[in-house]
Amino acid sequence: MSKVIKVLGTGCPKCQSMTSVVKDAISENNIDATLEKVEDIMEIMKYNVMSTPALVIDDVITIKGRIPSKDEVLELLKS
Known about the structure:
It comes from Aureibaculum algae. The chain is about 40% helix and about 25% strand. By secondary structure, it is an alpha+beta fold. It has one domain: 3-Layer(aba) Sandwich (Glutaredoxin), CATH 3.40.30. Strands 2-1-3-4 form a four-stranded mixed β-sheet. The protein is globular, with a radius of gyration of 11 Å. It starts with a strand and ends with a helix.
């Protein structure tokens, strides 16, 4: 089953870094996932996230306010 991954962030450098870490983790491990970037502040507010970037996997907020390592992203995707 394909996972739905969202990176919440307004496009700041940290948000871009998180997006590339997640992209790399997905492609290097052939993970079946859809990656969406959510940059609309109203959309981000729906998740009650005050610090970006935030990582949402299948509608669950897993990380907020920091850039995860590739290994950390992999662990979250496997669980």
